[in-house]
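INTERNAL AUDIT FORM
Audit reference: QA-55
Scope: verify that the stored structure record matches its stored sequence.
Auditor: D.O.
Record contents follow.
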Amino acid sequence: MDSLKHINRKEFLKRLGTGATISTIALAGCRTKNSSLMDKTSATKEIPTDQMTYRINPKTKDKVSLLGYGCMRWPTINNGNGEEIDQETVNELVDYAIAHGVNYFDTSPAYCKGRSEYATGIALSRHPRNQYFIATKLSNFAPSTWEREASIAMYRNSFRELQVDYIDYLLLHGVGMGNGMKEFENRYINNGILDFLLKEREAGKIRNLGFSYHGDIKVFDYLLSRHDDYQWDFVQIQLNYVDWKHAKEVNPRNTDAEYLYGELEKRNIPAVIMEPLLGGRLSNVHDHIAAKLKQKQPESSVASWAFRFAGSFPGVLTVLSGMTYMEHLQDNLRTYSPLEPLTDDDKIFLEETAQQLLRYPTIPCNDCKYCMPCPYGLDIPGILLHFNKCINEGNMPSSSQDSNYQKARRAFLIGYDRSVPRLRQANHCIGCEQCNPHCPQNINIPKEMQRIDQFVETLKQGKSF
């Protein structure tokens, strides 16, 4: 693969075919914490290499693939000294994605413990620069990076890590998080960084400038009110068929995607979509809901419904997916090669599905790990994801009077000890709240730790709820 720049497309596809097949077989034995994900998302339709759906950026006329590669969860291997990114597999995934029409790759200095940009840069630099668009972020979350020099150093380092001399899509990362407007001003206004980035765009070092939004709606509304001054080229928002009308039911601080998308559409600002699967939950739905989705479209995966929903809006430039495994990449490629837009009946069906899902609430953790490391050693994402997994799989003991109580109780407690070492479980949380400002989903983490700990203790004692 080192000579990719010197071979034609036909030869590239020929070489890739064998390697992709081998990697798919090898990865079939891999499991995530949500191991049932593979079974519920499987589909068998052949994947064409020339049918990807594209959207045109209205300003730059970039022809952007509707499927965007989120580089937040690259695969890892244990080299004996801890986990490191599996560069060989990353290269294979990137090669396969490009061969099948994907050309938008989204990363950040904060992803993969600070190693995503470097790994992404290695994989992409093996291809001609005009074959892909790189999106990265100014992820100056820590107060130590709010100083002008520190933020500029982070920005400059992204160029080195990604091995590029211009960035196609640069985002102010996670505006609205933490203290909302005050934190946004400290990160981007008071230090002159936003003015600096506007000048970098003028100079051509940044081709498109935008922001990703989480949390405080006042920040989102303020930035759009300044659109005439800033001329945002794109905005990244969370959008899926649950958050479309029910974001506040999932998390009280969130805003319905219907409003966010509508405000962008009014201003003709392209939307980049994150969390189309709501942190993976829309690919790992309860079995009875999965059965309804499969009954309606037997040849498609459960996850494909969520990706079709996100992609059916004309103002969406690309839909990001953090695809760790070849199976996930292939399934999403099937959905967008080409996209079959939702019908009005499909949209009604998904709204009914969203309402059903909300009857079984999970914690809106998407395993981003921004809350880590915990100063007291808790595995915060591991705890929350195990709790969600048991809800999704029906292993939630609701009453000691239920016929399946003992089986569900045993499954939850044994699974908890296997997923999270005891010294890192919820009972060790002291409520320091250092994690809360870092959570893009605005989860009250200490409150959830206390709730889960109480739930676990009740289970251990075999009491009724």
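Auditor finding: record pair retrieved intact. The longest strand covers residues 167-175.
Action required: none
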